[in-house]
Amino acid sequence: MSSYNTYGYRQGGRGGTGYRGRNYDNGNYQPRYNASTLTDKEEETINRNFGDLFKKDYHFPLLTEKDKAPVNVKITEKLFTTERWKIPELMALKESINTTRNRLNEKDIKVWHEHTRKTNMTGQVAFTLRKRFNIEMCTNAWIKMTELLVRYRLIPINLPEKYFRSIHLCEAPGAFICATNHKLRQQHGSWGIGRVAPEFKWEWTGLSLNPYYEGNDAAAMVDDDRFIVETYKSWFFGVDNSGNILDQENIRCLWCEKKASLVTADGSVDASGDPNEQESIVSELHYAEAVTAMGILEKGGSLVLKMFNVFECETVCLLYILAVHFKELSISKPATSKAGNAETYVVARGFNGISSELLKHLLSFVSPVFPPNVAMLPLESIKEDKYFLSAMIECATKFTNWQKQAIERNLELEDLWNSNVATAVSNQVRDVTEAYISQYHIKEIHRNDRIVTWLELDGSAKNLGNSASLARGGLQQRTGGTLKNRREKKRKREEFVVGDKDTSEPETKKVNLGQGSSVVYGRQDIPETVSRLPLRSNTTIEVSSSSDSMSIGMRLMKKAGYKEGQGLGASEQGRVNPIEVFQREGNAGLGHHRAAIDDSDDDDNSMPTVPDEPFFDENKLPPSISYSQLPINKNCVLVGHKIKHVISSLFVRPDKFQKLYQTREVIHSLLVKTDSFKSYSRQLFLSDSLDSIPFDTRFQYPETALQLSSLDKKFNILPCDTLRQQLPFLVVSNKDQGFVEYISWQQRDLLKGQAFVPSSSLSSNSIISYHLFTEFFTVDQPVREKVSLIVADISASPDVALKSRYVEYEMKLQLTQLCRHALKCLTENGHFVCKVSDVFTRFTAGVIYLLYKSFKNIQIWKSFTLNPALPDRFLVCQGYLPIRSTGFIEHLDYVTAQLTVNRSDVLEIVPINCLLEREFQIYLADSALYLVQQETQALKKLLWCHRNEKLSSMSIKKHLIEAANLLNNTRRKVIVIEPDEGLKLPKGWTKNFSESKKLWYFFNTETGQSIWEQDWKGGTS
Question: Active-site positions, per UniProt (predicted)?
Answer without folding.
Answer: 306
